[in-house]
Design brief:
Length: 268
């Protein structure tokens, strides 16, 4: 059985004071759950992804907690004259274990096209980081019935690069996050049935290239996941957790979502 994951994407939010408050809330909540015999964390992989400038501070604050550190993006380049970029080796050096690649906001606002996302993914794998690959369709694409075509294109640009690269089995170490763009920050959310349908499609496309990897890879849902809808979404067989935006900035909400993921794990 695949181990659930809940990853918090803090986006362009935070300050040292706000981060300290959030992390203290997570520490208290996990401690209280452990004392009550209902700690969710051992059943769920938890990750938080703060802005670059807070990564080292947050990494230190996470010591002793069952929460891992991730970044929100990574350069495709290993080094050189690329002002403002941060390489996978740098992220690894300061303690990151995960990195998001291909988030819809990066694709739409910063020009991260399929080719660049594939290179970022490969750069992360090359440094031993676990990439969280985001795929998903816009509202117009959704309404045109093109969700699967868009997701397939985004997915296969990366999958092809990995299978042709030096570590073809590397995709088994990755995470895929389906984020319907029309449901991010809008309050709209895909129905569990829709999420399951796209997740099953993603798993099938991966399995068509490698059946073993298709069964192993974890696929998260990202699109206005809240405490009120998390359990229903995570109950679907191909939804292995969530990539959480706004709710990850509130300790109580994030922990509630983690508890929902633990409840869906069946003791894995």
């Amino acid at each position: 059985m695949r181990r659930p994951m809940v990853a918090g994407n803090w986006k362009l939010h935070g300050s040292r004071a706000a981060n300290a408050t959030l992390l203290a809330g997570l520490r208290r909540g996990i401690g209280a759950a452990a004392a009550g015999g209902a700690a969710p964390a051992p059943l769920v992989d938890c990750v938080v992804c703060p802005p670059f400038c807070y990564l080292e501070d947050v990494g230190r604050a996470l010591q002793g907690l069952p929460i891992r550190l991730g970044a929100q993006t990574v350069s495709a380049e290993a080094g050189g004259a690329f002002t403002g970029e941060v390489s996978a080796a740098m992220l690894k050096d300061i303690g990151c274990e995960y990195v998001i690649v291909g988030h819809s906001e990066r694709r739409a606002l910063f020009g991260d096209d399929d080719r660049r996302v594939a290179r970022q993914f490969m750069a992360a794998l090359g440094q031993g980081l676990t990439p969280i690959l985001c795929v998903g369709e816009t509202l117009a694409e959704h309404e045109a019935g093109a969700a699967e075509a868009v997701v397939a294109r985004q997915l296969e640009a990366v999958l092809g690069a990995v299978l042709e690269g030096p570590e073809p089995e590397g995709f088994a170490r990755a995470i895929v996050a389906y984020e319907p763009i029309w449901a991010i920050g809008t309050g709209r959310v895909a129905t569990p049935a829709h999420a399951q349908g796209v997740h099953a499609f993603i798993r099938g496309r991966i399995a068509s290239q490698d059946a073993k990897i298709g069964g192993l890879v974890r696929i998260l849902y990202g699109g206005s996941v809240k405490p009120g809808n998390a359990a229903e979404l995570f109950a679907e067989p191909d939804v292995d957790g969530g990539l959480i935006g706004g709710a990850s900035l509130k300790a109580e909400e994030f922990l509630s979502i983690v508890a929902s993921a633990a409840g869906s794990s069946g003791g894995a």
